[in-house]
What we know:
Largest sheet: 7 strands, mixed
Radius of gyration: 14 Å
Number of strands: 11
Structural class: mainly beta
Shape: elongated
Strand content: over 45%
Distance between the termini: 41 Å
Helix content: under 10%
Number of helices: 0
Amino acid sequence: xxxxxxxxxxxxxxxxxxxxxxxxxxxxxxxxxxxxxxxxxxxxxxxxxxxxxxxxxxxxxxxxxxxxxxxxxxxxxxxxxxxxxxxxxxxxxxxxxxxxxxxxxxxxxxxxxxxxxx
Length: 118
């Protein structure tokens, strides 16, 4: 069984910063990638940033403001210069294998609310 637990969300004024954290625990054989997605009310879930052993990718709307990093089974999202349109529930994602003999799969955290006031 695998769990992803996020923390670090909250309420911040526009221009402020927040740092999200996510820890994966349980039976983990290998992690291919970890990342952050977000979903605002009435909108579809969208990619924010991902990180693998060799690369990071960012959505255009966060480039230069957000930084993703990873330490083993933990992934972080440093969010600077926050805007009201960044308000959303942020979800941690991990693509990983729990054993050698099965294919990798996507796992999700429960989400953490980020609210940016104007």
